[in-house]
Design a protein that fits this description.
binds magnesium ion; 20 strands; 11 helices; alpha/beta; binds adenosine-5'-diphosphate; binds aspartic acid
Length: 401
């Protein structure tokens, strides 16, 4: 007998037919004598729809009230799935995040899991129940419900699997695994049988939404293998696991992130300490800076450009605008019509020429690169947003055709 954690995303539970399909998958594993804990997302586009509804009432609603509302999406899908399983004649119970022991930080809208206390889940499993848990949510120290950030149900599933030392953690979604690029955008994308935690973490962070990046981070920390597979087909999926068990691929994937904005501080006096001042200002507000470019000094000034998440642009502008004058810089220029295109691959560490191949692919498609950043296993470039899809295709063709 094994303990199996299965997570089903929004499209896998979007209507009655899909719910009964999930009920079939879950009960077939239960029938084999396993303990099963199931984590669900809200049905279909429910979370987006709820956000839209809230915006009609108050676009500046507090994050607490947003969470109070958003947690309802998962509550509905969890209870509906339990009802479907009841109808098939199996013992089942659905639990909300707080009932399932999810204790989080208090950051509404983007809370982190501090601890999972799985006592209640364990009790229900001991009673031979199939346990359905709402993904994406927990409770903070004020006894308020919190959400874990968009796509966070993956992290809920991984957290339960780690806390309960599950034998398997399966992330069921609407594609049959992790591909070399988003298979909905790039039909030539190939499915990967395996991928290392580090590569998957980079891909997820750089825009491949198939897994929430924090779920990969946690799986890596606890050395929990993840299986990403489709709830629509019964094919084997992709295994995410430790690097030394994975044959190194030169490039394992291409990702696109459109939640990016570029800021340039123009005419910064060319003297020590100013970069520190600008970035510490941003970090004091929790704004993460990604690609950074500093021009060489000319006539006593230099320009500092960097990227941040588009969601942070208004906050960053508000913070930096008055500051620009205070440090004697000329102006602030912002652009949110940009996208970040990245390639990820553990093999690039030991292969020269990967960057030049990527740049050649972009050049051949007449796409201008605005900024570049690299690490051992990834190369990212910033391009104009209208070039983003062509850029992904050009780069993918170069490495995978
Ligand atoms: P779920 O609702 O099941 O959590 P998501 O919509 O969050 O599903 O994630 C699955 C989607 O991720 C796919 O439909 C696909 O379009 C997208 N995607 C982006 N990049 C990749 C990739 N490299 N491999 C697989 N899917 C990807
Ligand atoms: N329902 C949430 C969202 O749409 C969480 C998830 O799907 O993982 O972001
Ligand atoms: Mg998701």
């Amino acid at each position: 007998m094994s303990l199996i954690v299965q997570k089903f995303g929004g499209s896998s539970v979007k209507d009655a037919e899909r719910l009964f399909n999930v009920a079939d998958i879950v009960t077939s594993v239960y029938k084999e004598g396993n303990d099963v804990v199931v984590v669900v997302s809200a049905q279909g586009d429910t979370t987006d729809d709820l956000i839209e509804k809230a915006n009609e009432i108050n676009p500046n609603a507090s994050k607490r009230e947003m969470d109070q509302m958003l947690t309802a999406g998962e509550q509905i899908s969890a209870s509906l799935l339990a009802m479907a399983i009841e109808k098939l004649g199996y013992p089942v119970v659905s639990l909300l995040g707080w009932q399932a022991g999810f204790l989080t930080t208090s950051a509404y809208g983007n809370a982190r899991i501090r601890r999972v206390n799985p006592d209640r889940i364990r009790k229900e499993l001991d009673k031979k129940n199939i346990v359905i848990v709402t993904g994406f949510q927990g409770v903070n120290r004020y006894d308020d419900m919190t959400t874990l950030g968009r796509g966070g149900s993956d992290t809920s599933a991984v957290a339960i699997a780690c806390a309960m030392h599950a034998d398997r953690c399966q992330i069921y979604t609407d594609v049959d695994g992790v591909y070399t690029a988003d298979p909905r955008k790039i039909p030539a994308a190939r499915k990967l049988d395996v991928i290392s935690y580090d590569e998957m973490l980079e891909l997820a962070t750089l825009g491949a939404q198939v897994l929430h990046n924090r779920s990969v981070e946690m799986a890596k920390k606890y050395n929990l293998e993840l299986e990403v597979l489709s709830s629509y087909s019964r094919k084997p999926g992709t295994i995410v696991k430790e690097e030394n068990k994975v044959e190194k691929m030169l490039i394992s994937g291409v990702a696109k992130d459109t939640n990016v904005a570029r800021i340039s501080v123009i005419g910064v006096p060319d003297k020590p300490g100013l970069a520190f001042k600008i970035f510490s200002k941003l970090s004091s507000k929790g704004i993460n800076v990604d690609i950074i470019l500093q021009s060489i000094g000319r006539n006593g000034t230099k320009d500092i450009s960097f990227t941040i998440a588009k969601d942070n642009l208004e906050d960053a502008k508000e913070l930096l605008q008055p500051y620009v004058e205070a440090i004697g810089a000329n102006s602030l220029s912002c652009d949110d019509q940009v996208a970040k295109i990245s390639i990820v691959g553990a093999g690039m560490e030991s292969h020269p020429g990967v960057a030049s191949d990527m740049f050649e692919a972009l050049f051949s498609s007449n796409i201008n690169i605005r900024m570049i950043s690299t690490s051992e296993i990834k190369i990212s470039v910033l391009v104009n947003i209208e070039d983003a899809d062509r850029a992904v295709k050009a780069v993918h063709d170069k490495f995978f055709d």
